[in-house]
Amino acid sequence: MTEQDKTLTAAEAKGLRTARELEGHLVWLDTITPAALGVLAIASGIYTYLGVSSLLEDTGAMSFFAALAYSVAVSVGIFVFWSYMLRLLPAMRSAAGFIGLTISTIVGSVAIIAMSSWLNAAALAGSAAVEQHLANTVRDYQAGLEQAHEIALSGQALGREVQRAAEAFEALADQERSGDLSGTAGEGAVFRVLTQKTEELRNLQAQIEAQQPLIDAAFEEGNEILGRMRALTVAPGSVEQRSVAFSEESVRLAGVIANLNQYSVAPLVARAAEDLPASVVLPELDGRNASVRDAQSSTIASVLSALDQRGQTLKQAADDVLAMEPPQETAYNPISSADAVIKYADSFVPSWAGAIAIDLLPAVLVFVLAITQAAIRSGRDGLSIEETLTLSDLRAAINAMKDVESSMGVADAEIRARGAASAPPATPTPPAPPRPKPKRFDAAE
User: Fold this and answer.
1) Sign of the Cα pseudo-torsion (304, 309, 315, 318, in order)
2) Which ranges of 381-390 would DSSP assign to H, the alpha helix?
3) Nearest to 126, CA basis, from 410, 347, 309, 365
4) d(CA 345, CA 348)
5) Which residue has the higher pLDDT, 428 or 56?
6) Is there a contact between 310 and 276 (Cβ–Cβ < 8 Å)?
């Protein structure tokens, strides 16, 4: 390998610097991530406890411990789940592993929303949601009261039709008395028929007029009850206690609306209109001669025809009132704060967003960490270990080698010491015999 091959390119050096910088940031972030995750889990558990408490009817010790146990389980589950995801998903190098853990993250997030987020939303906006339920119920009752009042007043308007019919037959009776109708003055058979129908219509008109005070009183009472119900909707204090009083007022208002429906005279007018031509009691013709009796008979036939026409007119007017859409039956159904938050979720989007965000915010951290780890791997891919070593890494490696050499030297010394201690003692060597001195010879010899 040439010297040029060993030199990093500018892009590789830049990627390596970026990877080292990101690793430094992650080292610092790892010190605060568990604490932050624990705070989020505890906060979610607290709001979950408040939400569960609102669902439990009993307020004894068992309910307290049940809500506490559930909230603790939620906190532990959130902390453990996101701890797994923060460690495992960013470390995935294969596409299959990353996709699998991503799906697991989505499934876990749905489970967290199901077991915690909706309860958090109930704790955040439960009272406001119940108050909105009360306000919507007041609106429905008001619409029902106004519709019933309108139908009742439309029925009262039939009284004018009845009055005109009565006045018309009364005028005909006056004409008959003066002889302008049948040609014979007096109060004969024709006069009695006209008088009979005039009295029937007057009696019907009196019945219609008698209903007006009842209608006015019922409508006034209904508005008073609606005023008290609106006050309960925004009154201070516990919404549960206000709901009880609200329920009592709603029962009274339902009775008022039912009475208003019964005060409508349209069915009475419709029946009277049908009976108007059919219930004529024909008197005996009392003319002095045949020509007068023929005139009376002809006039009575004309009167019956007029009665039939007038009856059809009244019947049509009464049918128009009966065809009006009746008020929808409204009944107040008490609702819990959790159910109210779900039912009116579109009105509490910020509360839902906050409740879900406190549980799923770690998911953002998971994907941020995954992207960061991918960037680190991208900066280090294709580089050998020697090329990625920093000065601190080299110093640490040298110190580690020194420690290893020192440890090996100590180990060798201990082995030698142990070997020397276990060797048998050496046998002493006997002294060598003295060597004989050489003889000296004199020259003489």
Assistant:
1) negative
2) 385-388
3) 347
4) 5
5) 56
6) yes
Residue that has been written with the tokens 């045949």 in this structure = 290
The one-letter amino acid code at 172 reads L
The single-letter code of the amino acid at 215 is I
Burial class (CB in 10 A: 0-12, 13-18, 19+), 180: exposed
pLDDT band, very low/low/confident/very high, at 157 (cuts 50, 70, 90): confident
CB atoms within 10 A of CB 68: 14
Query: Is residue 22's pLDDT more than 80?
Result: no
Cα distance between residue 173 and residue 198, in whole Å: 9
CA quadruple 292, 295, 297, 303: dihedral sign: negative
Contact present, 315 and 105 (Cβ < 8 Å): no
At 267-296, the pLDDT tens digits run: 888 887 777 665 554 555 555 556 655 665
- Domains in the chain: boundaries: 7-91+348-392, 130-337
- Rounded to two decimals, the pTM is 0.64
The residue-averaged pLDDT of 40-44 equals 90
The C-alpha atoms of residue 261 and residue 267 are separated, in whole angstroms, by 11
CATH code that applies to domain 130-337: 1.20.1260
Alpha-carbon distance of 58 to 69, in angstroms, equals 16
Helix and strand counts by DSSP (H, E) for the chain: 14, 0
For the CA atoms of 212, 217, 219, 221, what is the dihedral angle to 10 degrees?
-170
**Of 264, 258, 259, whose CA–CA distance to 329 is shortest?**
258
Q: What are phi and psi of 186, to 5 degrees?
A: 125, -175
d(CA 170, CA 404): 131
Q: How far is CA 438 from the centre of its chain?
A: 129
Residue 114's Cβ-side half-sphere holds a number of Cα atoms within 13 Å equal to: 6
Half-sphere exposure in the Cβ direction for 168 (13 Å, CA): 13
Burial class (CB within 10 angstroms; exposed 0-12, middle 13-18, buried 19+) of 79: buried
Task: Examine the pLDDT at 3 and tell me if it is beyond 50.
Answer: no
Residue 235 has which token pair? 């009154």
Longest pairwise C-alpha distance within the chain: 232
Measure CA 314 to chain center.
51
| Phi and psi based region of residue 179 (left: phi greater than 0; alpha: psi -120 to 50; beta: remaining) | left
Condensed to tens digits (0 to 9), the pLDDT of residues 305-361 reads 677 777 777 788 888 888 888 887 777 888 878 788 888 888 888 888 888 888 888
Least confident of 150-159, 404-413, 417-426: 417-426
> What is the tens place of the pLDDT at every residue in 57-112?
666 778 788 888 989 999 999 999 998 888 888 888 788 888 888 899 999 999 99
